[in-house]
C-alpha cells in the first residue's frame, strides 16, 4: 500500500522510484506505529519501504504468549526475500528486538546495510533470565512500553508483557548473538543516552561480536523508543545518508536532506 493504514498497528509498504528497498522491524510487544516516521523519511528519499507486523503482535498479549521466536524470524526473512526479488539492494532497520532480528537476518542473508536503534541482545532486568521457569507461575507482568522522553507519544505496545514471550525473546537474543560473526553488512547503531529497557551490555556484545566495528551515534535527548523521541528526525536523516552512501546513488531531486 502507498498510504498510512487506518489502524496504526497494521503493516504497510510504501513504493519509491529507487531500485533499492528498506525493511523496518519493530520491537517487542510494539508494532508498525513505532516505525512510521522512519519509514516515511526513507520513502521520501525514494526507497521502497516495508514495515511488517510480527506474529503475535497487534492483537492481544495472550497471542504473543503463544508465539515462538522462530515465527518472528521467519516473518522477517520472508519479507526480506520478497523485497530482494524485486530490488537491487535491500537494507534493514531495527528497533530494540527488531535490531536482534535484523542482525540474525544479516547473518544468513545478503543484507546491504543495517541501521539499528537501541538493539537488544541482552537483558537489563535479571528477573528476565528466570522467564523459562516463571512462565509456568506468572502469565504476564506490567508493560515494557513507552520509554520515551518526548511527551504525548505512544508506541502502541501491549498493556501487559507475557512472561512466556520474554522466554522466547531470550532465545532470540542467544541466536542473534551466535550469528554476529557472520554479519558482513555495514552496521550503523543509534544509541540513546538514557535507555531504561536495553542495557549497555547489548551494545558491548554487538561491538565485540561483529567482524568490523559498527558506527555508533549517540542520541542525547532520547530514551529507548527513539524513533518517536526528540532525536528521531536526526536518526532518520543519518540513516538515509548511510544507506545512500552504501547504495552509491545520488539523492533524488526534491527529496529531504
Inertia-based shape: globular
**SSE order, as H and E?**
EEHEHHEHEHEEHEHEH
Please give the order of strands in the largest beta sheet: 1-3-2-4-5-8-9
Q: Into which percentage range does the β-strand content fall?
A: 15-25%
Q: How is the biggest beta sheet arranged? A: 7 strands, mixed
Could you give the distance between the termini?
25 Å
The secondary structure category is: alpha/beta
Radius of gyration: 17 Å
Low-confidence stretches: 251-257
Strand segment count: 9
Quote the average pLDDT. Answer: 93
What descriptive keywords fit this protein?
single chain; 257 residues; alpha/beta; 7-stranded mixed beta sheet; two-stranded antiparallel sheet; 8 helices; 9 strands; globular; disordered C terminus
Describe the 3D structure.
This protein is an alpha/beta fold. Helices cover 34% and strands 15% of the residues. The protein is built from 8 helices and 9 strands. The strands form 2 sheets. The protein has a 7-stranded mixed beta sheet with strand order 1-3-2-4-5-8-9, sandwiched between helices. Strand 2, helix 1 and strand 3 form a beta-alpha-beta unit. Helix 1 crosses helix 8 (232-247), helix 3 crosses helix 4 (97-106) and helix 4 packs parallel to helix 6 (163-178). The longest helix has 18 residues, at 69-86. The chain is globular.
